[in-house]
Amino acid sequence: MRIIIINGSPRKNGACSKILKYLNDYLEKENPETKIDLINLIDYNIKYCTGCQNCYKTGKCFISDDNVENIHDLIKSAAGIIFSSPVYASNVSGLLKSFHDRVHMTMEQLLYSKPCITLTVYENLMGHKTTSILKEMVMNAGGYTVFSLTIKNAFNNDPLTSKNRVIIEKAGKTLVKKIKKDKPPLLSLLYTKIAIHFFLKPFVFKNKESNKGIIDSWIEKKLIKRE
Fewest CB atoms within 10 Å of the CB: 9, 74, 75, 158? Predict the structure, then answer.
């Protein structure tokens, strides 16, 4: 079993990072058989998506020197994923947004049937709005959120209060339980099926050659049958 943790904060010693490190250590302690990868996106020189749609055709981004494709492949192999962002300007961080644009999760349904945790840390306002954005990001890529951590924390304060530790551990337990159960909620599966067959498939099949990478991904996940 593999769990991927994506830290969308540019501050490696900030609140998000401290919470994720605690969650990582807790999961490793309680589940020694589980492989956990904690990925700090700030360690990668993530280039911007150019909108070329090469990923639609080949299933790969043409930019290969910043290792985003390697993270893509780790997510593909994972049983569960944790996405995290601080609230910047009432939204997710620019770092996480750039990563999301580049990792081509949505069209190919990279998170299909995968349970996820979202973590949002905010100081004043819009924490729950940003949590909703993260959950929508997960849902639109075929995954489902099993626990949302929305933690209010003053700038440079330690977020690991005794109360927060209990909630963080509960989130970790829930994720592992859902991974082992391996039974995505019917509503999530239905949402994905409707999105593909009524909205995405008509667009993609207008030009099968240009969208071969997407089609191959759907076939691999058994979302559609090979025609």
Answer: 158
φ/ψ bin of 67: left (φ > 0), alpha (ψ from -120 to 50), beta (otherwise): left
CATH fold label, 2-220: Rossmann fold (3.40.50)
Instruction: Judge if pTM exceeds 0.90.
Output: yes
Phi and psi angles of residue 100, each rounded to the nearest 5 degrees, phi first: -60, -40
Q: Give how far Cα 197 sits from Cα of 190, 204, 220, Å.
A: 11, 10, 16
Cβ atoms of residues 112 and 223 within 8 Å:
yes
In which residue ranges of the chain is pLDDT below 50? Answer: none
Domain positions in the chain: 2-220
Give residue 227's pLDDT.
77
pLDDT at 226: 87
Looking at the chain, the number of H-run helices and the number of E-run strands are 9, 5
DSSP 125-182: S-HHHHHHHHHHHHHHTT-EEEEEEEEE--TT-----HHHHHHHHHHHHHHHHHHHHT
Round to whole Å and give the CA distance between 220 and 201: 15
**Cα 120 from Cα 33, distance rounded (Å):** 27
